[in-house]
Amino acid sequence: MSETLMILIGIMIPMVGTTLGASAVFFLKEEMQLRLRKALLGFASGVMVAASVWSLLLPAIDMTGTQGGVPWLPAVAGFLCGIAFLLLLDTVIPHLHMETEKAEGKKGKLGKSTMLMLAVTLHNIPEGMAVGVVFAGVYAKDAGISLAGAFILAVGIALQNFPEGAVISMPLLGTGMTKKRAFSYGLLSGVVEPLASVFTILLTSLVVPILPYILSFAAGAMIYVVVEELIPEAQTGEHSNIGTIGVAVGFALMMFLDVALG
Question: pLDDT higher for 205 or 69?
Fold first, then answer.
């Protein structure tokens, strides 16, 4: 199997996780229990934090050191730019978080279900970028990123996308939406990931020396999502300890996959 085909398969893996999670609307009769939802949100948070460190920031630091640059500079600059980019999108794009009635971003006339989907779509962008940039590193050959390591990140993102897809689609049923339409919204929210991956690969292939900056940028964007949405939702109200346990399990699993198998 050619390397290009392997990369194409790899960038589609996270979307598969979202799709499988969204399909929960066909199997679950009631809205997801609060404890399970908090555990899944915590799990997703742990996976994303571990992936940001081991699959993005550390490779960026190592790569810069190998190139003879200042190791911390691309990591810090890219990380802060990633945070700023997601903050800008959060400010501009109208969207609605779960369990809230007040929309964020610029005011518009979009419906509640559309803004819920936009919120998730917005936060799927950094995940797509993260997968895209590690596969760009594989394509660059001299970036020190292995194909196995890139696939581990893709699988890790897919693991956290599975509960995220369920958390997206199940509440939409409560708005009166049909199961098929709720599933389609969850599916569409995941389409942005392979698109963001392809865009990042094309961008990085044009200017390989900035790869450490893009790795760190993706890490910053992912951490923004964790801090802005996932952890607050997992910690609000009762059973916050369930969310904390979920973070620990997700972090440990992603760390194991990256260190032991990458």
Answer: 69
